[in-house]
Amino acid sequence: MSVAKPFVFALVCEACGAEDVRQRLAVNATGLAFNSVAAVERGEGGRTNPMVNPGAIGATSLAPGDTAQAKWRFIQDGAVCHYALAVMATAGMYETSGDWLYDVGVPGKSGIGGGIVAVAPGKGGLGLCMTTSARCELPVCRRIPRPGVHSWPQC
Fold first, then answer.
1. Domains of the chain: which residue ranges?
2. Helical segments of 26-62, H only
3. What pLDDT does 123 receive?
4. Distances (CA, A) of 80 to 20, 49, 58
5. Which fold is adopted by the domain 2-142?
6. Which of 48, 76, 114, 141 has the smallest CB count inside 10 Å?
């Protein structure tokens, strides 16, 4: 599921170094649908964001380990969370990431099956799994009370 992408990205950042991963995968939002091949075609050297399908495949290929179980070891370096949250904020909700951040205020990652992972840095996380369309993710999360949870302080 797509909600696993930030965790894979963090694992790869820890194993390979965040800057090396950034150079190999890229981290900017594509502005395209989650399954768009155009993102790879337009990206320099085929690089694309690890929150969209083609970039996630690249991230998974960089994860250390010979088996799936070996690749899914515990992420031990908390410093890599910064990088995963940054990419979640810019592209975790695909082409609606700006609306999500504007309305909900914390980095999030959605999955086409209705799953959502959201993180309020330093405060906690939220995981949702809805059996209905993923299109309802923003209206549902707008209703969640979140005093003091916004990632950026009010001006």
1. 2-142
2. 38-42, 53-62
3. 81
4. 13, 16, 18
5. Beta-lactamase (3.40.710)
6. 76
